[in-house]
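User: quick one - fold this with 2-(butylsulfanyl)adenosine bound?
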Amino acid sequence: MKLFSDDGGEIESGERKRIRLLQKEIKEYQKEYYENNISKVSDEVFDALFLELKTLEKQYPECVVSDSPTQKIYTPQQTVIQKTKHIVPMISLGNAFTDTDLFDWEDRFVKILEKEGVVFLDEEAPRYIVEPKFDGLGISCVYEKGKFVRAVTRGDGEEGENVTENVKMISDYSSSLSSLQAVDKYADLETFELRGEIVMRKSVFSAVNAQLELDKKKVFSTPRNAAAGSLRQLNPEITKERNLSIFFYETPLPSSHLHFGTYEKTLKFFEKEGISHSKEYYACNSLQEVLSAIQTISDMRDGFDFDIDGAVVKVNRYALRNIIGATGHHPRWAIAWKFPAVQVTTILEAVEWQVGRTGVLTPVAHLKDVMIDGVKVNRATLHNLDYIQEKDLYIGDTVLLERSGDVIPKILKSIASDKKNPISLPDVCPVCGSVTIKNTDEVALRCSNEDCPQVLKGKLEHFVGKKCLNIKGFGAEICDDIVEKKLITRFSECAKIYSFSVSEWEQIKNFKKKSIDNMLLALEKSKKQPFWRLIHGMGIAGVGEKTSKTLAKSYSNFLEFSHISNRSLENLKNIEDIGEKIAHEVITFVQKEDHQELFLALESVFHTRNFENTAESDAVKEGFLYEKKIVITGGFSQFTRNELKELVEKNGGSCMSSVSKNTDILLAGEKAGSKKVKAEELGIKIVDIDAFLLLIEAEK
Ligand code: IVH
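Assistant: Sure. Structure tokens for the protein plus 2-(butylsulfanyl)adenosine:
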């Protein structure tokens, strides 16, 4: 039955009203449940309401709106982007700029193949695949039984940020790969990984920036920055609006390599399966053919609606790739041909001084808008005062500007100048207004205020960061917010983070019940951190990880540490590894009145004691790593480099970056390359991660 109002318009029937109410109510329950961990109604009631809505919507299909809970899976807003480890580390590519680089690259891997008795020239065609090098952000998408399960950014190569919900918002991504669900033929691809690049198309970039400008918001400087900013969003709806694209180019798991045999066949599979990839790719059989493919791609560059910064040349057959292997940083079976940087001229209109998180002031050039590679550029870094003087730059100069791929544009030189308007040094810090200083022994200009909000953000980030208190989820954005909301105004107040009330935490952007609970838990956990991490967290000049450990061993707790006096200078200098300069820095830091207050506050939170260190050092004396020099190389799926380094040090060893005759042990991960070869030549003990862990365990 339809009802009409006096003016002839349709008014809602009871059912329609009920549908709208249910849609609204269910969404609210979902929001509370997913974001704040609160169940406002029991599961039974929720299910009954959901069923009622579904039934009513069936009767009144015209009431089904696209964001009805029945149509759309609820996408929770995250408060912190979680970190996730890659199954296989994501390494980057080596570069080639000239034909010679390319021939040298081929020589290197052909030699490796020859050692294994493989003649590259005898291999079946095509030997190479050449494709565009996308200028975006590397992404890994994992599928289980053909169903998309997660997407992780490159991060440090070992672990990246989990951006699953955001990638679901990109129309090019496939939520399910139907072939992989055909159990028999693809049983070996139960876990399947796609790697690719997320980019923002140039046309989308212009539209996004135009809208941002209309909204009086900061615009993005390059499509790549725009892609990064749009992907790393806590709210996936923003990612959706930004209309990103993906191009896939690798399947890194060994099972896929066995399955497909060659990259060419993998690309055919992509085509069949509708997996977004570069339509332009070239199968080549010699480097001459590779060079002409690169030229073709280069000629097409401006015509692409996405930024590319080169071409990637890859060995086609996976069996060969396996033999050729990788160095610690990049595969030997592929190389990136980088296009030469594009140069343009523009005017240096002004110089702005920006304060970094260490208090250093960096000059940034404001340039007259200029297009490079279809991208508008109006900023360039000038690094420091020396750089300005070396290039003899003045305001108003016509300057030569270069942008090469993902690199921030740089000024190469001034090509016309009337030398009337010199670049002046700021007397005061643009953030806090304190006077600036320039130490005679450094190039940098600094803010003299050690509690300058910008510096404070950096200090707090260091204190809570991975190498100090390692408080999970306490990232830079939270530190910035704490300082901006003036919850902490001096570094000596940093112990306050342990006593913030819920209402104080609620002032942090996107912090709701669940994130506050997680934060409180992480803070509690951090109270068990060893004493040296706290000392490191103080950010005393020259006191890094190693010195912090040494200092922690010499004092029983923070209170004892705080009683270092001038008379202790000699004692301090006598401690191994601590020279006059560091001893002086430590004493000056410790004796400051507000630092004394800080130590008291920290002591009452941590009850610091150095027995962890003593216990550590006693236990490790007999350990198999005691006083051993270890080199770590290759990829490890279960550990980050930092974790392994800590494990080595905890067991009395120390890590070195290169293999020499003094190296005791080489810990070799996946695709260990030249270091392993060198260790073999020098007859150094080589262990894999399983043997390494067993040896440590056996010593306990
Ligand atoms: S293959 C083992 N192919 O460039 C590395 N990478 O500078 C295999 N990239 O980390 C990567 N386009 O993020 C490959 N067609 C392409 C690429 C590509 C862009 C990125 C990738 C890589 C970076 C290295």
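One thing worth noting: Residues 14-36 form the longest helix (23 residues).
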